[in-house]
Design brief:
Layout (H helix, E strand, L loop, with lengths): L1 E4 L2 E6 L10 H12 L8 E6 L3 E3 L4 H4 L6 H21 L4 E5 L2 E3 L1 H8 L2 E5 L3 E3 L13 H9 L1 H10 L3 E2 H6 L5 E3 L4 H13 L3 H13 L5 H16 L2 H12 L7
Parallel strand pairs: 2-3, 3-5, 4-6, 5-7, 6-8, 7-10
Antiparallel strand pairs: 1-2, 8-9
Helix pairs in contact: 1-3, 3-4, 4-5, 5-6, 9-10
Length: 253
Protein backbone atom coordinates (compact mmCIF):
# COMPACT_ATOMS: atom_id res chain seq x y z
CA UNK A 1 0.00 0.00 0.00
CA UNK A 2 1.33 3.40 -1.00
CA UNK A 3 0.40 6.52 0.96
CA UNK A 4 0.88 10.24 0.40
CA UNK A 5 0.20 12.23 3.57
CA UNK A 6 -0.61 15.75 2.39
CA UNK A 7 -3.73 17.94 2.65
CA UNK A 8 -5.33 15.14 0.65
CA UNK A 9 -4.38 11.82 2.24
CA UNK A 10 -3.97 9.42 -0.68
CA UNK A 11 -4.08 5.65 -0.20
CA UNK A 12 -3.22 3.47 -3.19
CA UNK A 13 -3.44 -0.32 -3.27
CA UNK A 14 -0.22 -1.31 -5.01
CA UNK A 15 -0.49 -5.03 -5.79
CA UNK A 16 -1.57 -4.80 -9.44
CA UNK A 17 -0.16 -8.26 -10.20
CA UNK A 18 -3.00 -9.73 -8.08
CA UNK A 19 -5.52 -7.01 -9.02
CA UNK A 20 -4.94 -5.34 -5.64
CA UNK A 21 -6.47 -8.27 -3.78
CA UNK A 22 -6.72 -7.66 -0.05
CA UNK A 23 -5.16 -9.81 2.64
CA UNK A 24 -5.86 -9.40 6.34
CA UNK A 25 -2.46 -7.69 6.59
CA UNK A 26 -3.47 -5.17 3.92
CA UNK A 27 -6.81 -4.60 5.66
CA UNK A 28 -5.02 -3.98 8.96
CA UNK A 29 -2.68 -1.51 7.27
CA UNK A 30 -5.66 0.25 5.70
CA UNK A 31 -7.31 0.49 9.12
CA UNK A 32 -4.15 2.05 10.56
CA UNK A 33 -3.99 4.65 7.79
CA UNK A 34 -7.66 5.56 8.17
CA UNK A 35 -7.05 6.09 11.87
CA UNK A 36 -4.48 8.77 10.96
CA UNK A 37 -7.05 11.05 9.33
CA UNK A 38 -7.25 14.40 11.10
CA UNK A 39 -9.38 17.41 10.08
CA UNK A 40 -6.62 19.70 11.34
CA UNK A 41 -4.27 18.33 8.68
CA UNK A 42 -6.40 16.69 5.99
CA UNK A 43 -9.16 18.03 3.76
CA UNK A 44 -10.09 14.58 2.48
CA UNK A 45 -8.79 11.07 1.81
CA UNK A 46 -8.72 9.38 -1.59
CA UNK A 47 -8.51 5.62 -2.02
CA UNK A 48 -7.66 4.05 -5.38
CA UNK A 49 -5.74 1.19 -6.94
CA UNK A 50 -2.71 0.71 -9.17
CA UNK A 51 -3.17 -0.84 -12.57
CA UNK A 52 -6.50 -1.96 -14.01
CA UNK A 53 -8.31 -2.79 -10.75
CA UNK A 54 -9.47 -0.86 -7.70
CA UNK A 55 -9.51 -3.95 -5.47
CA UNK A 56 -10.49 -7.46 -6.55
CA UNK A 57 -11.52 -8.61 -3.08
CA UNK A 58 -9.86 -11.05 -0.75
CA UNK A 59 -6.60 -12.72 -1.72
CA UNK A 60 -7.44 -16.33 -2.59
CA UNK A 61 -3.98 -17.66 -1.74
CA UNK A 62 -4.29 -16.07 1.68
CA UNK A 63 -7.74 -17.63 2.15
CA UNK A 64 -6.31 -21.07 1.38
CA UNK A 65 -4.21 -20.91 4.55
CA UNK A 66 -7.04 -22.05 6.82
CA UNK A 67 -4.93 -22.89 9.86
CA UNK A 68 -6.99 -21.13 12.53
CA UNK A 69 -9.99 -22.01 14.69
CA UNK A 70 -13.39 -20.35 14.33
CA UNK A 71 -12.63 -18.16 17.36
CA UNK A 72 -9.27 -17.18 15.89
CA UNK A 73 -10.93 -16.44 12.54
CA UNK A 74 -13.43 -14.16 14.28
CA UNK A 75 -10.66 -12.14 15.92
CA UNK A 76 -8.69 -12.07 12.68
CA UNK A 77 -11.61 -10.69 10.67
CA UNK A 78 -12.83 -8.34 13.39
CA UNK A 79 -9.41 -6.76 13.94
CA UNK A 80 -8.57 -6.32 10.26
CA UNK A 81 -11.52 -5.99 7.85
CA UNK A 82 -13.88 -5.01 10.67
CA UNK A 83 -11.52 -2.37 12.05
CA UNK A 84 -10.99 -0.93 8.56
CA UNK A 85 -14.77 -0.59 8.14
CA UNK A 86 -15.16 1.01 11.55
CA UNK A 87 -12.37 3.50 10.89
CA UNK A 88 -13.80 4.41 7.48
CA UNK A 89 -17.25 5.10 8.92
CA UNK A 90 -15.88 7.10 11.86
CA UNK A 91 -13.16 9.00 9.97
CA UNK A 92 -13.58 12.74 10.68
CA UNK A 93 -12.81 13.75 7.08
CA UNK A 94 -14.60 12.79 3.84
CA UNK A 95 -13.31 9.65 2.12
CA UNK A 96 -13.43 9.49 -1.68
CA UNK A 97 -13.22 6.18 -3.56
CA UNK A 98 -11.61 6.77 -6.96
CA UNK A 99 -12.70 3.53 -8.59
CA UNK A 100 -10.25 3.10 -11.47
CA UNK A 101 -11.25 -0.52 -12.19
CA UNK A 102 -13.04 -3.55 -10.79
CA UNK A 103 -14.22 -3.31 -7.17
CA UNK A 104 -15.15 -6.78 -5.99
CA UNK A 105 -15.68 -8.36 -2.58
CA UNK A 106 -13.87 -6.23 -0.01
CA UNK A 107 -13.29 -3.71 -2.79
CA UNK A 108 -17.05 -3.33 -3.17
CA UNK A 109 -17.37 -2.96 0.60
CA UNK A 110 -14.79 -0.18 0.61
CA UNK A 111 -16.64 1.69 -2.14
CA UNK A 112 -19.84 1.45 -0.09
CA UNK A 113 -18.07 2.67 3.06
CA UNK A 114 -16.65 5.75 1.33
CA UNK A 115 -18.46 9.08 1.54
CA UNK A 116 -18.07 9.66 -2.21
CA UNK A 117 -17.39 7.21 -5.02
CA UNK A 118 -16.59 8.05 -8.63
CA UNK A 119 -16.08 5.22 -11.07
CA UNK A 120 -14.39 4.80 -14.41
CA UNK A 121 -16.85 3.54 -17.03
CA UNK A 122 -14.83 0.33 -17.41
CA UNK A 123 -15.15 -0.58 -13.71
CA UNK A 124 -17.26 -3.53 -12.58
CA UNK A 125 -18.69 -4.24 -9.15
CA UNK A 126 -19.63 -7.43 -7.35
CA UNK A 127 -20.16 -8.95 -3.92
CA UNK A 128 -18.22 -12.05 -4.85
CA UNK A 129 -18.02 -13.52 -1.33
CA UNK A 130 -20.65 -16.17 -2.08
CA UNK A 131 -18.53 -17.46 -4.97
CA UNK A 132 -15.93 -18.65 -2.46
CA UNK A 133 -18.46 -19.71 0.17
CA UNK A 134 -18.21 -16.62 2.35
CA UNK A 135 -20.53 -13.99 3.79
CA UNK A 136 -20.05 -10.33 2.79
CA UNK A 137 -17.73 -8.60 5.26
CA UNK A 138 -15.79 -5.37 5.80
CA UNK A 139 -19.05 -3.69 6.72
CA UNK A 140 -20.96 -4.76 3.61
CA UNK A 141 -23.93 -6.31 5.43
CA UNK A 142 -24.23 -3.19 7.59
CA UNK A 143 -23.91 -0.46 4.99
CA UNK A 144 -25.10 -1.92 1.67
CA UNK A 145 -28.79 -2.36 2.64
CA UNK A 146 -28.87 1.26 3.76
CA UNK A 147 -27.07 2.46 0.66
CA UNK A 148 -28.64 0.49 -2.20
CA UNK A 149 -31.66 -1.15 -0.55
CA UNK A 150 -32.48 -4.61 0.70
CA UNK A 151 -33.37 -6.27 -2.61
CA UNK A 152 -30.30 -5.02 -4.49
CA UNK A 153 -28.08 -6.04 -1.59
CA UNK A 154 -29.52 -9.56 -1.63
CA UNK A 155 -29.20 -9.73 -5.41
CA UNK A 156 -25.50 -8.92 -5.26
CA UNK A 157 -24.78 -10.96 -2.12
CA UNK A 158 -26.70 -14.10 -3.11
CA UNK A 159 -25.62 -14.29 -6.78
CA UNK A 160 -22.08 -12.92 -6.70
CA UNK A 161 -22.66 -11.43 -10.14
CA UNK A 162 -20.75 -8.49 -11.58
CA UNK A 163 -22.53 -5.29 -12.59
CA UNK A 164 -21.13 -2.50 -14.74
CA UNK A 165 -20.43 1.06 -13.63
CA UNK A 166 -23.68 2.45 -15.02
CA UNK A 167 -25.68 -0.12 -13.07
CA UNK A 168 -23.68 0.74 -9.95
CA UNK A 169 -24.57 4.41 -10.41
CA UNK A 170 -28.23 3.59 -11.00
CA UNK A 171 -28.39 1.75 -7.65
CA UNK A 172 -26.47 4.62 -5.99
CA UNK A 173 -23.47 2.50 -5.11
CA UNK A 174 -21.38 5.24 -6.76
CA UNK A 175 -22.13 8.94 -7.19
CA UNK A 176 -21.18 9.09 -10.83
CA UNK A 177 -19.45 7.27 -13.67
CA UNK A 178 -17.06 9.08 -16.00
CA UNK A 179 -14.91 8.10 -18.98
CA UNK A 180 -11.76 6.38 -17.77
CA UNK A 181 -9.49 9.21 -18.89
CA UNK A 182 -11.60 11.81 -17.03
CA UNK A 183 -11.66 10.10 -13.63
CA UNK A 184 -8.70 11.99 -12.15
CA UNK A 185 -10.10 15.35 -13.23
CA UNK A 186 -13.56 14.60 -11.83
CA UNK A 187 -12.17 13.57 -8.45
CA UNK A 188 -9.89 16.63 -8.39
CA UNK A 189 -12.94 18.79 -9.01
CA UNK A 190 -14.66 17.27 -5.98
CA UNK A 191 -11.52 17.71 -3.86
CA UNK A 192 -11.38 21.40 -4.77
CA UNK A 193 -14.95 21.76 -3.52
CA UNK A 194 -14.13 19.95 -0.28
CA UNK A 195 -11.00 22.06 0.30
CA UNK A 196 -13.23 25.14 0.49
CA UNK A 197 -15.49 23.65 3.15
CA UNK A 198 -14.84 23.43 6.92
CA UNK A 199 -13.51 19.89 7.28
CA UNK A 200 -14.14 19.54 11.01
CA UNK A 201 -17.78 20.45 10.50
CA UNK A 202 -18.08 17.92 7.67
CA UNK A 203 -16.81 15.41 10.23
CA UNK A 204 -19.57 16.40 12.66
CA UNK A 205 -22.20 16.02 9.93
CA UNK A 206 -20.80 12.62 8.98
CA UNK A 207 -20.85 11.51 12.62
CA UNK A 208 -24.49 12.57 13.00
CA UNK A 209 -25.52 10.77 9.80
CA UNK A 210 -23.70 7.56 10.66
CA UNK A 211 -24.79 7.57 14.31
CA UNK A 212 -28.40 7.63 13.16
CA UNK A 213 -28.08 4.43 11.13
CA UNK A 214 -30.26 1.83 12.78
CA UNK A 215 -31.19 4.14 15.66
CA UNK A 216 -34.76 5.06 16.63
CA UNK A 217 -35.51 8.44 15.12
CA UNK A 218 -35.85 10.13 18.54
CA UNK A 219 -32.33 9.04 19.51
CA UNK A 220 -31.09 10.24 16.13
CA UNK A 221 -32.60 13.66 16.73
CA UNK A 222 -30.97 13.86 20.16
CA UNK A 223 -27.58 12.96 18.70
CA UNK A 224 -28.06 15.42 15.84
CA UNK A 225 -28.84 18.23 18.30
CA UNK A 226 -25.74 17.45 20.35
CA UNK A 227 -23.44 17.57 17.34
CA UNK A 228 -25.12 20.70 16.01
CA UNK A 229 -24.49 22.43 19.33
CA UNK A 230 -20.81 21.59 18.89
CA UNK A 231 -20.87 23.00 15.35
CA UNK A 232 -22.40 26.26 16.60
CA UNK A 233 -19.28 26.81 18.69
CA UNK A 234 -16.76 26.59 15.83
CA UNK A 235 -14.88 29.33 13.95
CA UNK A 236 -16.24 27.89 10.69
CA UNK A 237 -19.82 28.64 11.73
CA UNK A 238 -18.90 32.19 12.75
CA UNK A 239 -17.10 32.75 9.45
CA UNK A 240 -19.99 31.28 7.45
CA UNK A 241 -22.50 33.60 9.09
CA UNK A 242 -20.25 36.65 8.72
CA UNK A 243 -19.58 35.90 5.05
CA UNK A 244 -23.28 35.47 4.30
CA UNK A 245 -24.17 38.75 5.99
CA UNK A 246 -21.32 40.55 4.21
CA UNK A 247 -22.22 39.14 0.79
CA UNK A 248 -18.91 37.34 0.23
CA UNK A 249 -17.66 33.77 -0.09
CA UNK A 250 -16.62 32.25 3.26
CA UNK A 251 -12.95 31.61 3.89
CA UNK A 252 -12.78 28.33 5.77
CA UNK A 253 -9.16 27.96 6.80
Amino acid sequence: MRVTDDAVYRITFDRPDVRNAMTTEVAAELADHLAELDPERHDAAVITGDGQSFCAGGDIDSMAQRDWTTAEAYERVRETFGRAAENALSAPVPIVAKVNGDAVGAGLSLVALSDFAYAAESARFGASFINVGLVPDMGATAILPRLIGLRKTKELAFTGKLVDADAAAAMELVNETVPDDELDARVDELLETLRNKPTANIGLAKEAIHDSLGQPWREGLRREAGLQSMAYDTPAHEEGVDAFREGRKPDFD
